[in-house]
Every structure is written in structure tokens, then in C-alpha cells.
Design goal:
Length: 160
Amino acid sequence: MQEKKTYLTVEGRRKLLEELEFLRTTRRVEVAAQIKLAKEGGDVSENAGYDEAKNAQAFLEGRIMTIENMLTNAEIIHHSGPADTVQLGVFVTVKEDGEKTNDTYQIVGSAEASPAQGRISNESPMGKAMMGKKVGDRCSVKTPSGERKFQIVKIGWTPG
């Protein structure tokens, strides 16, 4: 079975590499010290500190494996060609029907999505609705509170 591609910006890849390095070096040492300290507390079968440290170790190793998998299957989003259609990596400015202000979002892969920071996934309902659209095109997004309609105002490789 082929693994799913992880779409990453250059910045997103750099952040994952930094996190991986931190987890492999600093955090592994910290968790190993926690386990050692908990073992010194005696019988590990009824030692809450030991259980907690082992859970932290399992979570840590799981996160390391997840990041390694994402990096192995990464496809870096490159700024290529004109930004005349909504595609991975672009910044899209939209105007929602009935609103006075515009909102700008960067279209990223799901691994980097952070709606609060204006980074939406190409797999999200809004991201899917905008993909392939051009300036002036309209799109609608079904949300739990009802359908929302937008017009694409601007597309570019940089915000603003």
C-alpha cells in the first residue's frame, strides 16, 4: 500500500525537522531520566510515576514515527508559475457574501493546517471549494451553520 503524500511548504518541512531533532535528542533524554527516577522509587507494578513516564515515552516515540513518516512521504510545495489559480502554497484573499472585510488564507497540506493562523488545508471543505478557482470566481462551502458563499478577490505567492 502506498503512503499518502504529505504536502509541505519549505517552512513546514523546516519546522518538522527542528521538532524531530528536539524530540530525538532533548526530549528522549528527559523521558529516559523520568523513567530512571521512577524506577528508583521501587516496585514499578504500582508506581504511578513509572506509568506516567512510560506513557510519555510511548507518546514521544509515536510522534517521532509520525514525523519521520510525514518527511519520508513529503512533497514540497514549490512556487512555480503564475499564481493565477488557487493551488497548494498560494495565498487567497476572499470576500464572504454580506461581509465588509476580506480574509486571506494560505492553502497548505493538512499537516500544516492552522485555521487560526490563516493556513487552511487543501482537503478542508473551504480548501476543496477554492482549489482551481481564479480571481473573480465564486465558491460555496457547506458548514454546520449553513452554506457560506465567497468570491476570490486575489491570489498570490505572498500574502497581501
